[in-house]
Amino acid sequence: QSALTQPASVSGSPGQSITISCTGTSSDVGSFNLVSWYQQHPDKAPKLIIYEVTNRPSGVSNRFSGSKSGDTASLTISGLQAEDEADYYCCSYAGSSSVVFGGGTKLTVL
Amino acid sequence: QVQLVESGGGLVKPGGSLRLSCAASGFTFSDYYMSWIRQAPGKGLEWVSYISSRASTIYHADSVKGRFTISRDNAKNLMDLQMNSLRAEDTAVYYCVRMRGYHLDVWGQGTTVTVSS
Predict the structure, then answer these.
(1) What letters, b where the CB count within 10 A reaches 16 and e where it falls short, cover A24-57?
(2) CB-CB under 8 Å, B101 with A51
(3) pLDDT by position in tens, chain B (length 117)
(4) What is the dihedral of CA A18, A23, A28, A30, to 10 degrees?
């Protein structure tokens, strides 16, 4: 399975909103509502922030939201804060018991 | 509290073997699928292997198929990853992770595997 495609980097100023895209194919993102998103700060383990496209785990800020259209999933962070600066990864079920990650996006808060 | 603790990482020569372990606590281990996820230095995440709650379903990524074997002992709340024929490209931090559906909701702190002569 090929990795999902994410932009290498995005940036925004505090208080702004940003969106990170995650493009797959009709065999993964397009076929299943099983996209998840993870936040990773430097030298830390990743943390689940969105699952099954739009769901937020308990304790995750409602500033994080997810969506999907066709073969592309998106993560939107509203009201950017300095603590949001991190790497973000999408992940999707890809059929036949396989799962695939995106390459990751580095978010810089200016 | 829910916790996953990995052990067994270290330095190994190319072609060598290593066995990683993951000790789970704070939840009913036998109810959950479990995974190993790895991250090479400066790189992204890669799903290595997962195992169903009763070990009836096992998945290995193509990159490790035939070399790595995942297993679990529900009586001891343990999951292992036996890694054979190790290559330089297997160098990574290996995370033990709990699965819910096809998302990963609890992560260990990771254990580092370095394959080098």
Answers:
(1) bbebbbbebebbbbbbbeeeebbbbbbbbbeebe
(2) yes
(3) 999 999 999 999 999 999 999 999 999 999 999 999 999 999 999 999 999 999 999 999 999 999 999 999 999 999 999 999 999 999 999 999 999 999 999 999 999 999 999
(4) 80
Residue whose tokens read 């785990």: A57
CA angle A101, B111, B68 (to 5 degrees): 65
Residues of A in contact with B100 (CB under 8 A): 51
Which residues of chain B make contact with A104, given a CB cutoff of 8 A? Answer: 44-45
- Contact A104/A21 with Cβ under 8 angstroms? no
Per-residue model confidence as pLDDT tens digits over A4-30: 999 999 999 999 999 999 999 999 999
Cβ–Cβ of B59/A97 closer than 8 Å? yes
Q: DSSP 3-state helix, strand, coil percentages of chain B (rounded to 5)?
A: 5, 55, 40
Q: Identify the residue whose tokens are 């995974």.
A: B35
pLDDT at A1: 60
* Chain A residues touching B50 at Cβ < 8 A: 99
Beta bridge partners of A60: none
CB contact (8 A) between residue B45 and residue A46 = yes
